[in-house]
């Protein structure tokens, strides 16, 4: 279903039989809503984000490509989140053995202007799908279509904003004991000391070689988000806390309490593609009552 958001921006709404739903804006190819069968919003989107007409949308799942953060000369987090994507009305079929029925494919094409900033031709296909149990699955396929034999390299992240009841009541499992870079402390490499990750101040870390499954446990809501990733070795964890939030135009002062970014990414080792080569990066999210989550 194609429709328009409050600012007139076009979006696609996906609905699954049990009542789960998701929305994707063509602006940024950005998922801005994922609701469970009770209609609860599972992603955080700033109330200031979508009403404005231009600039990146704060919340949902911005796509950081071809550059994560300021790790390069491009605009922060790359241009993909600030371009209008196209809908592919005739997408390649799903694999035969899948239980997925609801999906949409978006394509990012560069303008001649963009080619001056990033002189590489590529095909970027983002498939947003809802699984039969309401899982949200994002699959990015990026192919080098340069005709002059040149490879290119990029960094990438699914900058996922989870909606949480109260950040002080949230714990992440799966990242303890990993090495990380701390954006707040410069270029040094640190190692987590073994405890589950909890929040009591600003956090902005890139965990390296994170496992394929990470759990985000919201004690107050008694809800656990399970994040599965493939092709994306790193995981960024970000919460701006109170002081930083106040400096951020798009966030209300108290928003930091209700959001947590956990972002499957490829940052430490950029992906390099030769002409004709394709890379695939997949993220699968599910939200389950914490009593169902056994940690397995
Ligand atoms: O992923 C974490 C981060 O890189 C932070 O450093 C923080 O600035 C955030 O992304 C949001 O960036 P944005 O450009 O959307 O305000």
From TrEMBL:
What would you give as a GO molecular function for this chain, any one?
Answer: glucose-6-phosphate 1-epimerase activity
* GO cellular component, as recorded: cytoplasm
Query: Which reaction does this enzyme catalyse, per its entry?
Result: alpha-D-glucose 6-phosphate = beta-D-glucose 6-phosphate
Q: Which residues form the signal peptide?
A: none
- What are its GO biological-process terms? carbohydrate metabolic process
Keywords assigned by UniProt? Isomerase
What Pfam families does the entry give?
Aldose_epim (PF01263)
UniProt superkingdom? Eukaryota
Q: Which residues does the Swiss-Prot or TrEMBL record annotate as the active site?
A: 159, 263
Keyword flag Lipid metabolism: no
Q: Does the keyword Transcription apply?
A: no
Please name the top-level EC class of this enzyme: isomerase
Listed InterPro entries: Aldose_1/G6P_1-epimerase, G6P_1-epimerase, Gal_mutarotase_sf_dom, GH-type_carb-bd
> EC?
5.1.3.15
Would you identify the family this protein belongs to, as annotated? Belongs to the glucose-6-phosphate 1-epimerase family.
Q: What's the protein name?
A: glucose-6-phosphate 1-epimerase
Species classification? Eukaryota, Viridiplantae, Streptophyta, Embryophyta, Tracheophyta
The encoding gene is LOC100834458
């Amino acid at each position: 279903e194609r429709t328009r958001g409050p600012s007139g921006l076009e979006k696609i709404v996906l609905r699954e039989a049990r009542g789960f739903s998701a929305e994707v804006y063509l602006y940024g190819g950005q998922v801005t809503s994922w609701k469970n069968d009770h209609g609860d919003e599972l992603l955080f989107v700033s109330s200031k984000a979508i009403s404005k007409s231009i600039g990146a949308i704060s919340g949902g799942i911005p796509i950081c490509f071809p550059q994560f953060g300021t790790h390069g000369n491009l605009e922060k987090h790359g241009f993909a989140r600030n371009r209008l994507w196209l809908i592919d009305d005739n997408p390649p079929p799903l694999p035969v053995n899948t239980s997925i029925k609801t999906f949409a494919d978006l394509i990012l094409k560069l303008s001649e202007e963009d080619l001056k900033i990033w002189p590489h031709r590529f095909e970027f296909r983002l498939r947003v799908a809802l699984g039969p149990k309401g899982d949200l699955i994002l699959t990015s396929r990026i192919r080098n279509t340069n005709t002059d034999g040149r490879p290119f390299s990029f960094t990438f992240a699914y900058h996922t904003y989870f909606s949480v009841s109260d950040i002080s009541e949230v714990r992440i499992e799966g990242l303890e004991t990993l090495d990380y870079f701390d954006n707040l402390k410069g270029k040094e490499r640190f190692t987590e000391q073994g405890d589950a990750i909890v929040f009591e101040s600003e956090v902005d870390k890139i965990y390296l070689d994170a496992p394929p499954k990470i759990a985000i446990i919201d004690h107050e809501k008694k809800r656990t988000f399970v994040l599965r990733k493939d092709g994306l070795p790193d995981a960024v964890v970000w919460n701006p806390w109170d002081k930083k939030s106040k400096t951020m135009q798009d966030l209300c002062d108290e928003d930091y309490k209700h959001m947590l970014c956990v972002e499957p990414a490829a940052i430490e080792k950029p992906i390099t593609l030769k002409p004709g080569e394709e890379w695939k990066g997949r993220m699968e999210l599910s939200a389950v009552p914490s009593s169902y989550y056994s940690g397995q």
